[in-house]
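Researcher: Please predict.
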Amino acid sequence: MTAGDVLVMPRRRSIGREFRLVWMSVVVSSTGDGMFITAFPLLAATLTTDPRLIAGVTIASRLPWLMLSLLTGAIADRMDRRRLMIGADLARCVVVGALGVAIVLDAANIWLLYASAFLLGTGETLHVNAAQAILPALVRPDDLLQANARFGSGQIAAAQFIGPPLGVVAFNAAASVPFLADAVSFAGSAALVGALPDVHAVEPARTRLRDDVLEGLRFTWHNRALRRITAILTVINFFYFAATALLVLYNSQQLHSGSFTYSALFVGAATGTVLSRFMVTALVERVGQVGTLATAFWLWSIPVLGLAFTTTPWVAVLMYLLLGVGTGLWFAVNTTVRQAITPTRLLGRMNAAYRTVSWGVVPFGAAFGGLMAHWFGLRTTFLIAGLAMLPIGVFGRRILRPVEDALA
């Protein structure tokens, strides 16, 4: 079987109980995260209206991907991935629960938000690296595309479709409620992963942790397809988060809308991601995996440009729906490609190296967006982001040629 073969599969087939447990755990914790996604900026906006300080929340939450992902990825390749997921969930349960208590006691401030965001981001690096590395051990190789599509659509739908509206409603009831609910979701996620059998699928460690980290970096760097995918997402993430880190201000200042529209933007994105699950297999069969990835580029760049110009809430929601479709297509195909061309023993480190660069750039993108909005206004920030992403759509097939070669 070649790397390309794993992308062709039956449209409907049961993937198995073990996958369902992981999927359910991700959905449960992601629902809590979705509440966090909306409640955190809302809480920050009660403490400051400075776009630079509000962007700092995104910076703090994504900084661990730059600082710690290589380490947590190496750990995921030498320890029981199941136990690592449980530990990460329980640690995040404690952190977000403590934040909820601080809000109840009226002790929350912007610096506490930054610290909590950083610790939650740290737990996320460990959980995501372990979860993506464990997935190929749970499903058949020819089920990977649909497993990744279900994994991604479930994760994003829960985080953006179910969680955000609940977060807004819960925050309006009491500022502490969404954070305490998130703590409960992490505990539930840990319980579901705990029901998995012993499927960590790692070899006993015989090397130093430092050497493991370097091996993962070298593998990712010397593989042209992985290097190109990482570079593309790095550029996309920098400019995408430059704009969306300020979504709470965009909603109030450009759309002149309240909490309903703010929630609807997340719902639109999640709806698009869910829809992508039902079209990804047919699209791959029609235009190929590279063509599907190139389609995702257009579904990112055009909507961001649309957001720069519109002041109409329903148009902005439609743009976010298209962004969600692009994200779902990219996640399913890109994740499957990376899993297919990476040995199992290196999956955690490959994911870590990939995310260290492509997600580690997010804090810089958010800081850039905050400065641009402060100096030139929100509209300019979205316009710069869209114009920067547009050439990737125009030259998408050419840019993805190393990926096409790897799958040939």
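Model: The chain is about 80% helix and 0% strand.
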